Amino acid sequence: MTIDWKKVVISPDTTIREALQVIDKEALRVAVVVLECDKLAGVVTDGDIRRGILSGVELSEPVSVVMNSTPIYALDSLSSAEHQSIMQERKILSLPLVDSSGKLIGLKTLYETLEIEKRENPIFIMAGGFGTRLRPLTDNCPKPMLKVGDKPMLETLIKHFKSFGFYNFYISTHYLSEVITNYFKDGKELGINITYVHEDKPLGTAGALSLLPSDLPKAPLIMINGDILTNVDFSKVLDFHQEHTADATMCVRDYEIKVPFGVIEGEGNLISAIVEKPTYRYFVNAGIYVISNKVVQSLKGKDEYLDMPTLFEQKHQSGQKVLKFPIHEYWLDIGRHDDFKKAQADIYSLGITL
């Protein structure tokens, strides 16, 4: 496969938002930062950007704020086998190539020719909601089975997981459950395993975990709402959870609120400051979670309603390790008619398995 490495070259003044667009569009997971005369200045990956977001960096800031200014690189004069050896030894997927003066003249990429590594981690998809805000579309069809493009959004979500090697699926059903079970059956036509968990009464996102079977794989579980359209790299979410030995990880999105007025700060009648048209940034729940088997087992036998934010708060208060993982990729919660229309327009540009 031939790549045009020049498409991922950016300057230090490029904004983080623009760098993200380059990384996502070219699908090389990296952008190369160069100074004038093409001198290598650094590289930036989506991991660098996620860490920046967590520390409060804004997407409008220059990429130089988050880039790795001491990247691994190699001379172009080395053999292809030597380039490959460097990447395998340092566990990187791409390697900037420079000449003897430090000028960037190429980018070597390590392509995995082996089959995608299978991951036994259970994927738990919540698909039992009523989809009230999407009526009349959901009068005879559960929301996750509404077609975005030419396939139900639930099928697109499952195939996206499968592209990262996941094959053990558990689907929570309630409203019009037979529509889902009749369509997917046991999952064998898609090359996966599907086990259905039926909620006789709505138990909430966390409460449904108590219904999972006793033979559930012990590996950390990924849980997601079935009405989400996204191209998130789920393997990165899982790797983050495991590397940090978390008990529970919540995917979050950066959300801005711009106040169009001057905000008055102070106590009582005293004014301490006037902030003109401020922007407040928050992390909001993206409806994607990684849950350790220990947490799942702690819920067994509890046939009671429990939502995921409450579960995270309970585990935090009990001293367990709960983390947040920022996602910058495309993400859309299809809860309203406007969202559904947007999904129809966006689906073919996401680069996901259809």
UniProtKB/TrEMBL annotation:
Entry keywords, A to Z: CBS domain
Protein transport recorded as keyword: no
The CBS domain, residue ranges: 1-59, 67-123
Keyword NADP found: no
Pfam families found in the cross-reference section: CBS, NTP_transferase
Protein name as annotated: Nucleotidyltransferase family protein
Organism of provenance: Pseudoalteromonas obscura
